[in-house]
Write a structure and sequence with these properties.
Chains A, B: It holds the Pfam family Aminotran_5. Two copies of one chain form a homodimer. Chain A has 13 helices and 14 strands. By secondary structure, chain A is α/β, with parallel strands linked by helices.
Chain lengths: 380, 380
C-alpha cells in the first residue's frame, strides 16, 4: 500500500532532497562543505527575512528552544511565556528550568493570545526580560498574530521577543527584521521539507549582545548560542554538524528560493483554506478560531470514534494524520499541509477522509469533500 | 512542482524498488546474484501463471518480440499477425523481417479482433506456423480476449500462439498454461513497476521444441531464445544481465506476490473503471469498445485542443499523460493506471484533468469528475 504522510513533522521529503543526502559523505572541515554551509547561511536569512545570522544546530526544534533560553536568560530573570498549547507549555518548562520561575499566561486551546491581553501582561511586568511566543501552535493548529504581538512588546517594553516558529516558518508570512523579532527557531522536519535533526535559529543584534555579554555564566555547552554565533561568523559550526542533513537543507532552501518565499506562504494559506473547505463540506467542524496555515485541526464528528477512523485512514488507505493531544485526544485530529504539499495533495487527503468515513459508516454525500476542495481552487 | 506520471511505460517505480537498485552493484557470476535470479525465475512463473521457463533478457519489450520471432520463425514461414494499433503493426514488421512476408489482419483502432474473424483467417491459412496477438494494445487502450482467441487457434490449427503481453501482464487476468499460450512477452517498465531495460518471455514446451530444433539456422545472437533457455535451466543468463534491474525486479515481484496476482488484476480493473467514470462525468467520450485495464484512451472533447490541454496538465499540474498516436494524434489522449497506482491516484489524475480543463476554459461542473471517481469506489 502506498504510504502518504499528512503529519506536521516529519513532513514529506522531496526526491531531490533525499537523493542529495544519499551522496557519499564529505568531511565537515572540507572546503566543499564550508561552501555549502555558507550558501545555507545566506538562504536561511532569506527564509527568515533577516540580515542577522541564522545558526544551524544539530538537534531538534526543542533543542533550539533550549539553546535560546539557556543562552539568553539567567536564574532570577523574569520571562513571560504564552501557553496556548503543548508547545507554548514547553516554553514555560524551559524558562522555569533556567530562571527558576515563569510568568505563564494560559490561553484556551484553539485560540491565540490577543495583543491587548499581552499589553496588560507587559504593564503588570515592566521588568520582563523576554516574552516567549508560538507562531503556529502545532497541538491546536492555531496561529498567533506575531506581527501585532511583537509590535506591542516593542512599544511597551525592552523585553526580547522570542518566537517558536517551528511549524510556522515557510507556512506563514514572517519578517524577522521588520517585525522586530529577537529570536526565531524552526526545525528541519517542518516547512523546510527535511528529515528531523536540525534546528535553525535567527538571532537579532539585541539578542546577540545579551548572549555575548552573558556567555561566561551560561549553563550550556553543546546548545550554546554564543559558540554557534562565533562559528557562524566564519561559516562554520562549533561541533560536528549533521553533514548529510546540512547538504539536504541546502537543496531544500534552493527549492524555497526558487519558488519564492511569498509564493510559498501563499501556497500554504491556500492549501489550508481548501483543506478547511473539504472538512466543512463533510460536516466536520473546525477546531481553531485562528487557523494555522501549517496544520488544520478538526473536531471528530458526533459518533465518529478516533481509533476506528484513524485505523481506516492508516490501514485501508495508507494515510497518516496526527491525533489530538492531551485533553483533545480522541476529540480532534490534525491534518498537516506543511512543506512539500500541493493542491492535488489536498484532494488526496480529503478523498481519503471520505473513504475512511464511508468505511466506518458515517453518513455524508460521497464526493462532497473532494468537490469542495476542487471548488476552493477552481471556483465553480 | 511535484511530478506525477500517468503514462503506460515508464510507469512509477515504488520507493523500495528504487532503493534496492541503489545498493552497491554485485557481480553476476556471484552466488548471491544467482540466488536472486533463481527467485526471479520462480516469481516470474507465478506472474505468467506457468510452470514453463520465463527468461529474462536485458533489452526492451520490442527486443523481446524480436527475440521470439527470430528464434521461432524462418524465411518462408507463414505467420498471421493481428494489427489493431502501433504494437500489432510491430509484430508485422518483425514477421516480415524474419520470414519475408506476413498475413497481416488490420483491425480498426479502438477495437479488438473477434475470435470469429480469427477462425476465418486460420481456415484460409491452415499452414500458418504462428499467430501474433496483442493482449493490451497500448496505442489504442484496447484489450483483446486472449483466452478466447487462443482457444480458437488451438482448436483450428497447430500454429503457435504468440502474445505481446507488454502492457497486459499484471493488469489483465492471464494464464499462460491454462490458456495454451506459447510465447508471452512483457517489459520491466510496465505492470512490473520497474524502469525500462528488461524483457521477460514465457516459452511453452511446444515453442521450446521448435526453438531448440531450429537453433542452428537462427539469425540472431544476443536475442537468441535458445541461448536464453539453456542458461535459464541453470538459473543463469547467456550474456551479462542488467544486474541492478534484475535486483529491482526481484523486489517488484515480491510486491506482486505479496499483493496476490488475482488482487493485482482486480485492482487494475477497478482503477480503469473509476478512471472511465471520471472521464465520462466530465463529458468526455471513451475511445475503446473493449477498454484495457492498463490504459484508458479518451476522445478530446469538442473544442479542447490537445496542446493547450497537455500544457495545462504538464506545466501547471506536473502531470504527464500519453498523447494519441498516428491518425489519432491530437484527437485522443491516454491515461495510464498500469503498475504502481492506487485508488487515490485516480482521484489525483481526474482532479488534475478538471484543473487543466478549467484552465483552458472548457465548461463542466467542477467536482463532477472527482465525485464520479469517489462514487466508483465507495458508492453514493
Amino acid at each position: 500500500m502506498k504510504k502518504r504522510l499528512f503529519t506536521p513533522g516529519p513532513t514529506p521529503v522531496p526526491e531531490n532532497v533525499m537523493l542529495s543526502m544519499a551522496a557519499p559523505i564529505i568531511h565537515h572541515r572540507n572546503p566543499e562543505f564550508m561552501e555549502i554551509l555558507q550558501r545555507v547561511h545566506e538562504n536561511l536569512k532569506y527564509l527568515f527575512q533577516t540580515t542577522q545570522p541564522v545558526v544551524v544546530l544539530s538537534c531538534s526544534g526543542t533543542g533550539g528552544m533550549e539553546s535560546a533560553i539557556s543562552s539568553i536568560f539567567r536564574e532570577g530573570d523574569k520571562v513571560i511565556a504564552i501557553n496556548a498549547g503543548k508547545f507554548g507549555e514547553r516554553w514555560g518548562e524551559l524558562v522555569r528550568l533556567y530562571t527558576g520561575g515563569c510568568i505563564e499566561e494560559t490561553v484556551p486551546w484553539g485560540r491565540a493570545i490577543e495583543p491587548g491581553r499581552l499589553k496588560e501582561l507587559l504593564r503588570e511586568h515592566p521588568d520582563a526580560k523576554g516574552v516567549c511566543l508560538t507562531h503556529s501552535e502545532t497541538s491546536t493548529g492555531t496561529a498567533a498574530d506575531i506581527r501585532a504581538l511583537s509590535a506591542v512588546i516593542r512599544e511597551e517594553s525592552d523585553a526580547l521577543v522570542l518566537v517558536d516558529g517551528i511549524t510556522a516558518i515557510g507556512a506563514h508570512e514572517f519578517h524577522f527584521d521588520d517585525w522586530g523579532i529577537d529570536i526565531c527557531i524552526t526545525g528541519s522536519q517542518k516547512g523546510l521539507m527535511m528529515p528531523p535533526g536540525l534546528a535553525l535559529i535567527a538571532v537579532s543584534e539585541r539578542a546577540q549582545d545579551v548572549i555575548n555579554a552573558a556567555e561566561d555564566s551560561a549553563k550550556n555547552f553543546y546548545l550554546s548560542l554564543a559558540k554557534a554565533l562565533k562559528a557562524h561568523s566564519g561559516d562554520d559550526t562549533p561541533f560536528t554538524p549533521a553533514v548529510s542533513l546540512v547538504i539536504g537543507l541546502d537543496e531544500a532552501l534552493k527549492m524555497i528560493r526558487q519558488e519564492g518565499i511569498e509564493t510559498t506562504w501563499a501556497r500554504h494559506e491556500s492549501l489550508a483554506a481548501a483543506c478547511r473547505a473539504g472538512c466543512t463540506a463533510l460536516g466536520m467542524e473546525l477546531f481553531s478560531t485562528s487557523p494555522s496555515f501549517a496544520v488544520t485541526p478538526v473536531w471528530l464528528p458526533e459518533g465518529v470514534e478516533w481509533n476506528a477512523f484513524n485505523k481506516a485512514l492508516k490501514y485501508s488507505n495508507g494515510i497518516t494524520v496526527a491525533a489530538g493531544q492531551d485533553d483533545y485526544k480522541g476529540k480532534i485530529f490534525r491534518i498537516s499541509h506543511l512543506g512539500y504539499y500541493d493542491e492535488l495533495d489536498m484532494l488526496t487527503i480529503v478523498g481519503a477522509m471520505e473513504r475512511a468515513l464511508k468505511e466506518i459508516g458515517y453518513c455524508f454525500p460521497v464526493g462532497a469533500g473532494v468537490t469542495a476542495v476542487q471548488q476552493a481552487f477552481l471556483g465553480r
